Amino acid sequence: MNYTKIFALATGALLWMSSCTSSSDLDKLPGAAVRTQQAISETVSKLEGHDGYWRLTYYPDTKRAYGGYSMYVQFKDGRVTALSELSTTSTNSTYSVKNIDMPTLAFDTRSNVLHHFITSTEYFRNARGGDFELLLMGQRGDSILLQGRKYRNQMSLVPMTTDPATEIAALQAMATKFQGKNFAPVSIGTAGSVSFRLNPTYRQLEYTSTSGETTTTQKMAFAYTTEGLRFYEPITIGGVTLSGFRLSSDGTSVTSIEGDVTTTVVSLPIDLVNKSYVAYFKADSAADDLVSFFTRVNNTLYRNRKARMSARTYFGVNTAADQTAGLVGNDTKVAGFLTMPIYEQTNGSYTRLSYEVDFVPVGSDPTQVDIIARDGNESTWWYWYASAAEYWVSRLATRAPYTVETLTDAAGTTYYKLTSVKYADKAWFYLYEVQ
Predict the structure, then answer these.
(1) Cα–Cα distances in Å, from 267 out to 11, 123, 229, 424?
(2) Are 77 and 157 within one domain?
(3) Angle of the 288-305 helix axis to the 382-398 helix axis, nearest 10
(4) What's the pLDDT tens digit per position in 413-427?
(5) Full domain range(s) for residue 100
(6) pLDDT (tens digit, 9 = 90+) per residue, 225-281?
(7) b/e map 325-350, b = 16+ CB within 10 Å
(8) Quick check: pTM over 0.85?
(9) Are 36 and 148 part of one and the same domain?
């Protein structure tokens, strides 16, 4: 039976549209409760009748601010086994298909995979807009179409015949390939030159076009695929439709899935994806304006928490030593950070305060580094110090992008000067690779 019709019947929509049906014919139709149960039973049979896994393309948050993720689920005897590109350790929990507003797939009991974006934490106190009740909206071919009951994002279940571990490895590799990358501007249809700002971790692509004196900027969430990335829904730029991009085999360009648009992939001028660097926000090592702001933030931190930040701020990836010491990302073990050492004045204790960011190049000028601030890091007690420290992260991020100049000291050691494109005199600092 066609699932679209089943679910429409379950909500009673077709009943009210049957004005051409005689009263005697209506008497022969099963009751609404019977039709609903029929839809539920057929859905369970379809889910559990597939021997392999289903790929669940999952989008949390009303504005899809975290992008999309692939989860892999297998249904048997009222239980669901799940793993994802964020967690390859499978979980087993209960599920049900029941009538709430309409036939609904519900993940009833706790799963670290399926409830990842639903879980409240010290930093994400209201969680991150995940849905565990998914309305059954119909089918397209073998796929089941879903919608989050609370946040209303469109999702889908696609049956798989291959091992999800293989696909997960490919998705993780693809996500890594886009770290520290952006796309060069390209002419698209009637829009002319379009520039991009890629947020590879929270999976957003911002695109900007200019027509006369009008500049338009829009953003679209995406999920990684084994070939590149696919948007939550197709976008239209200058009359040209784009569903996403495929990455070339050598990683130097992307082409739209439709094949109409190709542009160059741009890399960072310094390796903030694989290395860690340190800046010293003190006289002669940074602009006076930045040093003054850092001092004010530190004074506020002391008033609020009797703690002070070190003049050092670290930029880049959490190193192997960082990971061993417990600094890991909110969603993935390896992540990009701004990290500030914190000293508690009352007891002399030391900790690190980290904020997760993406470092990406500017598409039109790969000598420039952009900083996209994401969220405070759970593993470093960010929430405890956030009222003061977020001002420091915000100052560094809003002064971006920075032009990177390579310098050499008297001993022949390479270091860098980062100068704000927007505030050249007020926002610059030296950056040194951590050895």
Answers:
(1) 51, 31, 17, 23
(2) yes
(3) 170
(4) 999 999 999 999 999
(5) 3-161
(6) 999 999 999 999 999 999 999 999 999 999 999 999 999 999 999 999 999 999 999
(7) eebbbbbeebbbbbbbebeeeeeeee
(8) yes
(9) yes
